[in-house]
Amino acid sequence: LVRAAAERVLPARAVVVHGFAEATGLAADLLEAITLRCPTTTILDEPPDPADPTRPDLGVVFAARLRERLARHAPLEVWDETPPPASREVYAGVSVDDEVRWTAEQMRTLLDAGVCPERIGVVCRNLDEVAMEVERHFSRLGIPYSSEGASGSLLPVGRRLAALVEVLRRGEAVSVDAWLLAGGGEESAELGLALRACGAGKLAQLASLAVEPLLDGGGYLPLPLRRGLGEAPADGEDGPAPLLRQRLPGAVLREAVRRAQAWCQGAAAWPAQGELAVHVECWRRLAATGLGWSAGGGVDGSDPVEKALDQLSADVPPTVCLGREEFVELLAQELAQAGRAPLGGAGGGVQVLGVMQARARTFEHLFLLGLNRDLFPRPVREDPLLPDRLRGALALLLPDLPLKLAGLDEERYLFAQLVAASPRVALTLHATGGDGKPAAPSPLLLRLGLAGNWPPREEGGRRWLSTPATALEHAVAAGLAGERQHLAALLALARQEACPEGSVPAQVLGRVRAAILAEWDPDPRGAEGRVRRRALGPYFGFVGPRSALGDPRGELFASVAAGMVSCPWQTFLERLLGLADPPDPLAGVPAVDARLLGVLVHRVLEQVCRRAAPHLPRSLAEALSSQPVAVPWPEEDELDALLEEVSALTAREAGLLWPGFPLVLKEVARPYLGVAQACEWGRGAVAVCGVEVEGEASAVDGRGRPQSLRFRADRLDRCGDRVVFTDYKTGRPQDLGVKRDTRHDRLARGIASGHYLQAAAYALAEPRAGRGRYLYLAPDLEDAERVVELAGEEWVADTFCATVETVQGAWEEGVFFPRLVEPDRDTEPRKCSYCLVAPACLRGESGVRLRLREWVHSAARGGAGTASRPEELLISLWYLPKGGAGGSGEGEEGA
Q1: Distance CA 554, CA 712 (A)
Q2: Band of residue 736 on the pLDDT scale cut at 50, 70, 90
Q3: Over 60: is that where the pLDDT of 459 sits?
Q4: Which of 8, 405, 550, 776 would suit a FRET pair with 793, their CA atoms being 20 to 30 Å apart?
């Protein structure tokens, strides 16, 4: 058949075969048939050794088998003219980006000198390794280029097509994220998060999801995110702006379930075998019902799927029976390059090629990129199932079965051929790969002794200072050199170069970015920078005093005041702005964190009292004037039902709707409730006067100045002539010591540092008979560690007033600085390592931390000049934790 095809297809008087070095199977049979049937001239390239051009390279053994096969039918004519020695240049870049940037710079020089772009070649063993850098630098320097057999960056439509292929391959087991990406839609991000929160991570789980039990009373699904502040109160009304939780309309969730069900039903009805037209019809039905695609709409209106189906219809005979998996794989192959941007033009310009496309081609100037180990030569390994020893034994029966290790000869042959393809060759390599790991030079380059400048000592950015460069590169070079005089203008030019039609003027963005840099990192080389460094700007938490309307700051409560002492910036982000760590939509079942556990335990203990006495007061005045009510501990069945109900409510409000998650929450909280029962209800009913009691504590310091602070107590009891305020804690207490003086001293420091500020407020709310106590419910504590109690003594009032005066002033004036360093040590606070809002903090900036510490120490010594009121409050608040007992007090983060 091959010989007949050669006679029919090639009725030529002369045939020239060029570019082959090896051929197997039908390709070798075709070449042999052409040689037998037609007057044929076959040109086989035997490149010279790059190290010694007077003799052939040893890699020509790779072409020996084809040469011997063709020599049986026609004599070989050897042309042994020695080519002139080539000019070789080696450049070792710091990175792949630097390597490609240098190449683009050299080509720009050649083009400016009049060299024809089509006579310049850029070759890499694998173009995918440098495609992104080629797109970036060649375009920036205005280099015309084209690439054969390579594609550029992945477009958004490409990501959707890849998701579509994954959905077709995996069916009901595919992730909802891939299914949503394939379908598109503006609500995909929020819907994906909602489905993860509901535990519907797979398409089959989404199809069986019961929607109505998950929605709140308004028909919305709460998400584990906040969306910021609500509208400010109307004119004339005072009060903070409310924090709003992100919610998803129930209709969106219902539509997602409907489409998932339609997809699953359509996939079940898709026959396992059928003609191409049957599979195409099933696919189009699924796309319309399961993905919501309009008829013929395709992906983003470009219709690449329909084009792929048309190509399949042209390639596959209509009577051929295909399996469903075969159809999916054929469609995936057609879509493989559909979602990528073309790399360069349509054939003109500089030729950007892979090694296989560059075989047997010549150039006036050649740039050979990526001469690193494991890139060129590529890694060559034996087949573990069919090693070369066995392949050699089978060669008598299967002469076209190649040896895997012959790939080493192929790599050497290709390198020698490329080095001989141009009189001027530039060989480039890089010191670090895209993953930041060191990259070694290629053994092909080491053999020539041309990698002497290794590792590179020059940074690519510094070279741009003396060569033609783009506006962005000039801005980068200025930044590396620390030059700020013209940085705003350079940034504006760079922005205009990248986005000439941007919505914000480039000059404005340049000035803004330069101003941010000057505030964030003042330049110590100038007088202005030194002056600014000695002051603290808005990035250090000076948000301004309370405004009249819509300010999120309400009344300061004791629990918030304690957070202000610990870290004012964290309090500002979490309490006022409602920021939270965004949940990972790809993570597994969420853990029961300390905050969620504390909310659940507090709610259950409140409901224990509420169900026994529904009318227990919430205000301090009513609670003090009311008669105590005996509250018994509920029976086991009643407690279990209450715990299950509150667990479900807590999980719903947190947006954690995984099936079974409330049960996990319930079992984690049960031991804490057991401790509360043993400690509080072990002797019978408890006389309760109020729950979630809200009031105000007032005291007068030694100078006669009154201070007050709002608080909320979990429970108020009357024990004889004493009034006991109880606050439940699910964390662990600090070590207060055993001796009376030690305990007294550590309690005083705890009030000053905010750790026991709530207990002090409870005790001072009723100075004559009040007692404030913390009840620690952690199951593994000793009984002696569970209770910390304070009375309204004089030393408690003095310490309370000093702390409240500072914290209240900082709250009103808007002093929310980030506590980046301990006040008495040059170390970062331990709680920074697990702070949920650390991404919105200056944490990790060593220069900022040093600037803050130096300013505070200078201001404390009186060296900062006349400090403003906010700066005085910062200094006072800075040193409050020095009174904390036992360090930073991380034991109460779950309170």
Answers
A1: 14
A2: confident
A3: no
A4: 776
CA atoms within 13 A on the CB side of 180: 25
The β-bridge partners of 791 are 771
pTM for the whole structure = 0.71
CB under 8 Å, gap of 24 or more: what pairs does 573-579 form? 573/837, 573/840, 573/841, 574/836, 574/837, 576/552, 577/228, 577/229, 577/243, 577/552, 578/226, 578/228, 578/229, 578/243, 578/244, 579/226, 579/837, 579/840
> What element of type H or E holds 101?
helix 96-112
Count of CB atoms within 10 A of residue 677's CB?
15
Confidence at residue 128, expressed as pLDDT on a 0 to 100 scale: 84
CA distances from 404 to 96, 376, 377, 864 (A): 29, 16, 14, 74
C-alpha to C-alpha distances, 259 to 160, 254, 271, 518, nearest whole angstrom: 17, 9, 20, 53
Spatial CA neighbour of 663 closest among 193, 235, 159, 199: 199
Q: How far is residue 800 CA from its own chain's centroid?
A: 43
Grade residue 111 by pLDDT with cuts at 50, 70 and 90: very high
Given pLDDT bands bounded at 50, 70 and 90, which one contains residue 743? confident
CB neighbour list of residue 776: distance below 8 Å, 6 or more residues apart: 729, 730, 731, 732, 733, 785, 786, 787, 788
Phi and psi at 242, nearest 5°, equal: -75, 155
Q: In angstroms, rounded to a whole number, what is the distance separating the alpha carbons of residues 568 and 564?
A: 4
Mode of pairing for the β-strands spanning 87-95 and 52-56: unpaired
Give the tens place of pLDDT for each residue, 414-455. 998 899 889 999 999 998 887 778 888 899 888 888 766 676
Pairing of strands 424-432, 87-95: parallel
Is the pLDDT at 400 greater than 50? The verdict is yes
**Beta strands at 770-776 and 722-729: parallel, antiparallel or unpaired:** parallel
The encoded tokens of residue 343 equal: 């790399």
Nearest CA-CA partner of 48 in 86, 75, 17, 20 = 86
For residues 596-612, one letter each, b for 16 or more C-beta atoms within 10 angstroms of the residue's C-beta and e for the rest, the string is bbbbbbbbbbbbbbbeb
Residues 276-308: tens digit of each pLDDT: 889 989 888 888 888 887 655 554 445 788 888
Nearest to 161 by CA among 345, 364, 369, 302: 302
